[in-house]
Amino acid sequence: MIGLIVLTAALLIWQHFGMERIMEFSAASGRPVELVDDRLQQGGSVARLTRRPDALIMDCDLRLKFEWPYCRFLFILSKNEFGVDLSEFDSISFDISYDGPGDHTVRIFLRNFEPGMSTLDDYMSQKVNEVHVIVPAKGIVKIPVKVLRAAPWWTDMRHVPFLHADMRIDNVTSVDLSIGARDTAGHHRVELRSLKFHGKLISQNRLLLILMGMWIGCAVVWLGLALRHSRSQLTNSTTRLALLSKVNEALELETRELAGQAYSDPLTQVLNREGLRAALMERWQHPDSSHELFAVIFVDIDHFKKVNDTHGHGVGDDVLCAFAAAIQHGIRASDKLARWGGEEFLIICSGTKASDAHLLAEKLREGLNSQIWPGGLRITASFGVTALQPGEVIGEAIKRADGALYQAKSNGRNCVRVA
Ligand SMILES: Nc1nc2c(ncn2[C@@H]2O[C@H](COP(=O)(O)OP(=O)(O)OP(=O)(O)O)[C@@H](O)[C@H]2O)c(=O)[nH]1
Fold this sequence. Notes:
Shape: rod-shaped
CATH superfamily of the largest domain: Galactose-binding lectin
Order of helices and strands: HEEEEEEEEEEHEEHHEHHEEHEHE
Radius of gyration: 60 Å
Helix content: 25-40%
Oligomer: single chain
Bound molecules: guanosine-5'-triphosphate
CATH class of the largest domain: Mainly Beta
Number of strands: 17
Mean pLDDT: 92
Largest sheet: 6 strands, antiparallel
Structural class: alpha+beta
């Protein structure tokens, strides 16, 4: 951006103060030049050219034989239909000394080949653009190009329609510097040191267009880059977001897993005391739970110590797992089974009266009796049953169920007692 600003300023300053483009016609320029006089039109004027390194000298004896007597320098730019575009030049200057009769008027003619109007075999079909200048005694004359006009005598002679009678110098085939008029017969000496067209390498309008193009181009490139950058940032953010959400998911899973581990017994996979507490808390938070019926069943495997002692702890563990699975299988999904400790389990049956809990305990007990156990063992269990009383905290009910279990043990085990 800074580069572009500096370049813009530099080009504008250069265009204004420099960037000169000059097209010169002189002895030194090496451009082909010849003198032409009115003898072509059966006139009597005679022009002679003398070349000096610093000037082209025309000696013209102007005689009034032809209607418009003349002598002229002729610089040919092109002999075919492809001329030179001089429309980008701003001014014409010439350095001339003029001796002779009359007011020392010179005429500059620029012949422009215009397709549709000009032909190669008719020299006069090329548009004549002209300007008349009176040469001062000394010095350089400079005139703006825009004072050139399509010569009225030429437009009249060629019957050029008004619309095409404009000055046009975009395809110039020759430049003339001519002298002569009816009242200036005699000897004329014109010393042409230089005839120059002045312009800029790049016109102001063209430069402004170029600068505008550069700025628009830069803006487009900059926008493109910014868009690409934003897109890649968006892609990065999306990728990062996707990654983060995956990590988050994994962390959530891990947290859930850890929470599950904290709430379950690692051996039997049923709830531990903490898990049971959390489950009951959740249950109690329910608005309708305060009036709900709860039954508590305490279960304890009979003579489990003997299993361990006789068959080893491995078998004991297998029995514990199979026992928990059997109880879990025998209760409803809404009931909660927890390992209370060792070979003791607690069942919380929601929406259950003591009598129903009793029936459930009996069913479970009988199921255990008929089950096939690891190592061909026979496993029985004792049950203590109670129901939560209105206004009672669950700890009291558990204690009562524990008491009932104690009774069941005392009464010979493999039985259910209700408190
Ligand atoms: N294999 C195994 N044994 C356990 C585990 N937890 C507790 N025990 C054992 O369970 C036995 C419990 O024995 P006791 O409290 O005497 O009860 P019991 O032998 O079942 O006798 P009663 O309950 O009176 O019928 C102990 O030998 C403990 O070591 C366990 O996770 N795995």
